[in-house]
Amino acid sequence: MRRRIALSVAACSLALSLAGCGVLSATSDGGDATPTKGDDITVGLLLPEKANTRYEKFDYPIIREKVASLTDNRGKVEYANAEQNAAKQAQQLQQMIDDRVDVILLDAVDSHAIAAGVTKAKEAGIPVIAYDRLAEGPIDAYISFDNELVGEVQGRTLLEAMGPDVDTSDKIVMMNGSPTDPNAKQFKQGALAELNGRVTIASSFDTKDWKPENAQANMAEAIKTIGAGNIAGVYSANDGMAAGVIKALEAAGVTKLPPITGQDAELAAVQRIVSGEQYMSVYKSYPAEAEAAAEMAVAKVQGKDIQFDALTRDRVDSPTHKDIPAQLVSVVALTRENIKQTVVSDGIYKISEICAGPYKAACAELGLK
To answer: Which are the contacts of 368, defined by CB distance < 8 A and separation ≥ 6?
Structure first.
């Protein structure tokens, strides 16, 4: 994927929508564009799964509320979750085409398999915006976090955690994401850009469906091959898989865990970071992504072309289409040192949630109160 990162996005606080950055100031009323629809619009939202808590807790409600606020409470969101089933998502997409929704936000389970459905939507005159994952087919735009940067941040932070004397004698395990998710490939590319030549990647797995239990089985295999005591670090592409990695290490009798990465800043992962079981996660501001996606969808269907262009200043290539208008949002490494400045400050979690029960003492040591 080609990346052209807009500095205005990276400079903006991750907790704010782009409207708060002033990107939309010139076209907040639609400018010279002639709207094709008024406020009575329907946005179709297709999300991929429920195992990752972000989709039900953040993405859907934030998009629903933002669409309502942008349309004087007249716009609505038609929502469906595929629960990690590509065939089910294809049916959901077809249903939205049949229902004649005005625009579709699509977070694909399988970016390649969904291409035919995207083409059908295009033929029906329904714009499709790829959300969080770059779907194939004639999509109108793409919004996601800067996925290669995610991998770079993970790889770089893992090396830092392994210490200043890290070298190719140190063996690590790579627990990459699902091979059907294009984001997983980009995370892996970014991580390898940091890790190659610095450490030895002793085992590497592409983990089916991102499932923690699959990551646990993969890690158990790696431990048998490498030896638990010879694993100096683990690159895990997300937090759910990090939990599986930790279970495998503990089952093998490891009491001092090596540094382990993650992504998504799930509550359980933040708590593991507090307790020292997981070294880091990648914090991605879901409100920033979801609100901007809603703005893009509404602008597209209302014919506010100048506003839409302001929201899509980057360009990316998919395997089927080139020069796709895009917005790539920046990310930050979440460690014990910046929990308060990230997920707490942005209102993702309360300190009382993070520091419940067995995590109270560790939180007190970190000054989280």
So the answer is: 274, 339, 340, 344, 351, 354, 355
Of 323, 231, 154, 131, the residue nearest 245 (C-alpha): 231
E-strand ranges in 29-181 read: 42-47, 76-81, 103-106, 128-131, 141-145, 171-176
User: Cα dihedral angle (244, 250, 255, 258), rounded to 10 degrees?
Assistant: -30
Please count the other Cβ atoms lying within 10 Å of the Cβ belonging to residue 153. Answer: 25
Express each pLDDT in 102-139 by its tens digit: 999 999 999 999 999 999 999 999 999 999 999 999 99
Question: Which residues lie across from 128 on neighbouring strands?
Answer: 104
- Count Cα neighbours of 131 within 13 Å in the Cβ-side half-sphere: 29
Would you state the structure tokens that stand for residue 283, as one six-digit string?
A: 């914090």
Q: Are strands 324-329 and 314-316 parallel, antiparallel or unpaired?
A: antiparallel
Distances 131 to 113, 224, 252, 292 between C-alpha atoms, Å: 16, 39, 39, 10
Q: Quote the CA–CA distance of 285 and 289 in Å, as a whole number.
A: 7
SS3 content of the chain, % helix, strand, coil (to 5): 45, 15, 40
DSSP 184-196: HHHHHHHHHHHHB
Q: Quote the CA–CA distance of 77 and 171 in Å, as a whole number.
A: 47
Cβ proximity of 49 and 84 under 8 Å? yes
At 144, the amino acid letter reads S
Output the pTM of the full model: 0.75
Q: What is the pLDDT of residues 195-241, one digit of tens each?
A: 999 999 999 999 999 999 999 999 999 999 999 999 999 999 999 99
Residue from 134, 171, 180, 154 nearest 239 by CA: 154
Q: How far apart are CA 289 and CA 122, in angstroms?
A: 24
What is the token pair recorded at 341?
A: 């400045």
